[in-house]
Amino acid sequence: MVLGILLGCFxxxxxxxxxxxxxxxxxxxxxxxxxxxxxxxxxxxxVTTAVGLIVMMYPILCKVRFEELNNIxxxxxxxxxxxxxxxxxxxxAPLVMVLSKI
Length: 102
Description:
The protein is mostly helical and 102 residues long. It has helices at residues 2-10, 14-20, 28-33, 42-61, 69-73, 76-101; strands at 22-23, 26-27.
């Protein structure tokens, strides 16, 4: 994703080149060139492409408004909730699990 952003910012013709290569409205570079070459099985390549597309589209499907993140993360209440969640999930819960095995 970072490579795509950098190419889009610094090489203006990237979008035109990628738009010319589509197959059934799916960008061929996503489906073929960006996947590792050891995926010889066509079905595995198609599943990998579908999963990759879903992962890329997830923020859009959830309607994440990235421009709002600055406002959200500037509130102390959110940081308190995140710290609480971190302590419970990563410190207390593992200790409870270990102690329950003893």
